[in-house]
Design a protein that fits this description.
Number of strands: 8
CATH topology of one domain: Aminopeptidase
Structural class: alpha+beta
CATH superfamily of one domain: Gcn5-related N-acetyltransferase (GNAT)
Oligomer: single chain
Shape: globular
Bound molecules: coenzyme A
Helix content: 25-40%
Strand content: 25-35%
Order of helices and strands: EEHHHEEEHEHEEH
Strand order of the largest sheet: 1-2-3-4-5
Length: 181
């Protein structure tokens, strides 16, 4: 059992990730448009047991160690359907990640989820600073950082699933986040 809570936004339920989510993640995540700007640690072509392996060997052990917090995203109007994921990580310069299934993109849903988990990071986990990396061509992700009051602090480059791109690192401190709210 996860020892962190289910969170809610206006339209979404953020439910702690569990092994039973593997099949739905496999279906919604394994699409080029979803993975192309993710870090090259994501295997591509995505193996048939990719989601199960990710849950069993990476995400759930990190949750158990108290180093990561992962939620599946579900619409309140259709709670049985997993539509995306959002995560927080105690990792150097990489504290939040997310993806949304293609049919649900562009409806402002990740903006809602982001606001809630960012609040969780600062208020419940008590962290001082949130940093996120992203591929420069990932305009939707960049927009989310801009809209969250984050600052671009560094540009270098890195390997992503779609190739080598400029990598932006965005940051917001707790003080800035409080002012921004
Ligand atoms: C990034 C992602 C999670 C955004 O999810 P979403 O639910 O579609 O996001 P929202 O609808 O809340 O939109 C967020 C902002 O991005 C903008 N946006 C959405 N899709 C866009 C696109 N293809 N190009 C440019 N801007 C886009 C929206 O207009 C919105 O900006 P606004 O508030 O100024 O209108 C989604 O595109 C995704 O899953 N991408 C693949 C995985 C990924 O790249 N994850 C992030 C890794 S850093």
């Amino acid at each position: 059992m996860a020892d962190y809570p289910t969170l809610y936004t206006e339209r979404l339920i953020l439910k702690p990730l569990e092994l039973a989510d593997a099949e739905a993640i496999q279906q919604q995540f394994a699409h080029w448009e979803v993975v192309r700007y993710l870090n090259a640690r994501v295997p591509w072509p995505y193996p048939v047991d990719g989601a199960l392996h990710y849950l069993q060997d990476i995400a759930l052990p990190a949750i158990a160690r108290g180093e990561e917090w992962h939620w599946s995203l579900r619409l309140k109007s259709a709670p049985d359907q997993l539509i995306g994921n959002i995560s927080l990580m105690d990792e150097q310069d990489n504290n939040r990640g997310f993806w949304m299934g293609l049919p649900w993109q562009g409806q402002g849903l990740m903006a809602e989820a982001c606001a809630q988990v960012t609040r969780y990071w600062f208020e419940d986990l008590g962290r001082d600073c949130l940093r996120v990396p992203k591929a420069s061509p990932n305009l939707a992700s960049r927009r989310l950082s801009e809209r969250n009051g984050m600052r671009l602090i560094r540009i270098d480059d890195d390997e992503f699933v779609g190739g080598r791109y400029a990598r932006e690192t965005w940051e917001i401190t707790r003080k800035e986040w409080r002012r921004f709210k």
